[in-house]
Structures are given as C-alpha cells and as structure tokens.
Amino acid sequence: MSSCSWPGRNLTMQQYHDNEWCVPSHDDAYIFEMLTLEGAQSGLSWSIVLAKREGYQKAFQHFNIEYCSKLTDEELETIKEQYNIIKNRTKINAVRSNALAVINIQKEFGSFSTFLWNYVDDHPVINSWVSEGQMPAQTPLSEQISKDLKKRGFKFVGPVIIYSFMQAIGMVDDHLRTCPYHSTNR
C-alpha cells in the first residue's frame, strides 16, 4: 500500500503524518496548539514549523490556554527573543488574542472542541483521494469556519490555514485512499 508522499524522508514529518495528521482530537490544548502552529506556518513550510514545535511548547507552557491569554506584551517580546519559534511579532501576538477568543468560546460552548466539531456533526469528513493533487487547499466549510472564527476575534485563520488545521485535528481525513493511515485502512 502506498502512503502519502508529502512527509518525504523527513523523520519529524513522517512521525507527524503517521501519528497525528488527520487523527481526530477533542483536546482543547492540542487543538489550540494546532491552531497556533498552522497560523505560524502562514508563508512557510510545515517542516520549519514542526522543527520549532518544541520551542513553541516550552514558550507557551504546552499551550496552556489560560496562561497564553494572560501574557503581557513584555512577556510576548521575551518569548520572541528567547525561544526557538518563528519570530514574527504578529503571529506571536496572535497566540494571546486567539487564547482569549478560545476562552470565550469555552464559556459559550463548554469547549473549543465542541464548537469546532459541531461543524461536522462530530464526525470527521473522510475523503478518498487517489492522488495528492486532488486535495483542495480550502473548502466551503473551511471558508465558513474561517469567517466565523474571524468574527470571534481570531487571527491567522484564513480558509487555507483552517483547512490545514481541520486536517491537523482530524476533522478531515485527507490521507490518500491507499495510505495505511487512512481511516478505512486502520
């Protein structure tokens, strides 16, 4: 059975593909981590972001949403200077604003997970692509979620980022149909 080719020979990318990508998650901290990392990827490659993942985890206390929501401008500047993360100030500041928006959603819906998974009636969208070229960069659903998140004050949540995010948290299974990690092959 052939696997998805996008991880290439990069071991970190392969491990992410095999163990996390398109695996459903309902853990708010993990979901917040993936939202942060997908936003940080904007304009960069996923391999660069994964290489800095540990730095992000240390800088943001394993994506403790409450902690991130209370970071001061000075603390965010210190994080920018002292941790192995992408040094874009706007992306770093988005961690705080997105944490605040997540907390508001948690108050309204009980969890960030519940809010997001309601879009797919709590069942992942399982695609059956035969080539990676068939995979869309965005969908009407990612456009809708992006629009709704922006209204709620989220940053770095365009429809392409949100589609990648949906894959990251398993709302969408985009493994190739022949990949051993596709939902129907596990």
From TrEMBL:
Task: Provide the transmembrane region boundaries.
Answer: none
- Report the domain of life of the source organism: Bacteria
What InterPro entries does this protein's entry cite?
A: Adenine_glyco, DNA-3mA_glycosylase, DNA_glycosylase
Write down the PANTHER family for this protein, in alphabetical order: DNA-3-METHYLADENINE GLYCOSYLASE 1, DNA-3-METHYLADENINE GLYCOSYLASE I
Q: What is this protein called?
A: DNA-3-methyladenine glycosylase I
Question: Native species of this protein?
Answer: Desulfosporosinus nitroreducens
